[in-house]
Design a protein that fits this description.
The chain is α/β, with parallel strands linked by helices. The protein has helices at 19-25, 43-48, 61-69, 85-89, 96-111, 124-133, 150-154, 159-169, 185-188, 206-209, and strands at 2-7, 31-35, 53-58, 77-78, 116-120, 141-146, 174-179, 198-203, 210-212, 219-221. Strands 1-8-2-7-6-3-5-4 form an 8-stranded parallel beta sheet. A two-stranded antiparallel ribbon has the order 9-10. The relative contact order is 0.22.
């Protein structure tokens, strides 16, 4: 696995403010890992606010719903959400009629010029079906896989879903595996999917990764712990 360290300039608090990162430093037409190293730095925000066609894939519904709720005026499409929050979070299976309704709604969104789709990992295949039937070129879409380490955590109880998700990702030319807590590189090197990927690791200024210690002059580093997310 190859790694490129990118030094975040002083004064950058959110990644959307670092224009060179998106314009020149990060590639297009590749699959790569973006290790942002700290949480809340606005990586997904930068993609959702960009002019690109973006599919944000998340392992958890609540993460998607929270993001969607923050952008009610920004014309995002949350797949399977039809205005009823309770129904969206129900774990009951959807009928063929439900899926047809979801797909038709997404198709109308795409045909009207929509460019930002939010979906769970297991629905990416449905997104592809609608994109293709709508005449969209998949190579024009960037897939941002948020919290990609969940693919490892979740495979123990839904291995087929995670495998199918990884296969569908191969249909896109630009895929960003995003995390602040990626698995150890030694583990990633053992996998066919991640072993050959480039890792772009962000190195933040000290004032962005440290906070004053309680009751003393000590400095304590902020770190997102590498645990498997739960709930959803």
């Amino acid at each position: 696995m190859h790694k490129i360290t990118l030094n975040v300039p002083e004064g950058i608090r959110y990644l959307s403010d670092w224009h060179d990162l998106w314009n020149t430093l990060l590639p297009e037409g590749q699959h790569y890992i973006l290790n942002k190293r700290i949480c809340g730095c606005g990586a997904t925000e930068a993609y959702l606010r960009s002019g690109r066609k973006v599919i944000l894939a998340s392992p958890r519904k609540h993460l998607l719903y929270n993001k969607y709720s923050q952008h009610l005026s920004d014309n995002l499409h949350l797949y399977r959400y039809q205005g009823d929050k309770k129904r969206y979070f129900e774990n009951t299976g959807n009928t063929e009629k439900d899926i047809l309704a979801f797909n038709n709604e997404l198709g109308r969104y795409i045909q009207s010029g929509g460019r930002k789709i939010l979906t769970t990992y297991d629905s990416l295949g449905k997104i592809v079906e609608v994109l293709v039937s709508s005449g969209e070129c998949l190579q024009e879409w960037t897939v941002v896989v948020d919290e990609f380490q969940s693919m490892f955590c979740d495979c123990q109880y839904k291995a087929t879903t995670e495998y199918e998700f990884s296969m569908i990702l191969g249909m896109f030319s630009t895929v960003v595996y995003l995390s602040a807590t990626p698995f150890l590189e030694s583990y990633l090197d053992m996998t066919g999917q991640f072993g050959g990927l480039m890792v772009y690791e962000l190195l933040w200024p000290a004032n962005m990764t440290q906070i004053p210690g309680s009751g003393s002059d000590q400095v304590q580093k902020i770190r997102c712990q590498p645990v498997c997310p739960t709930g959803g």
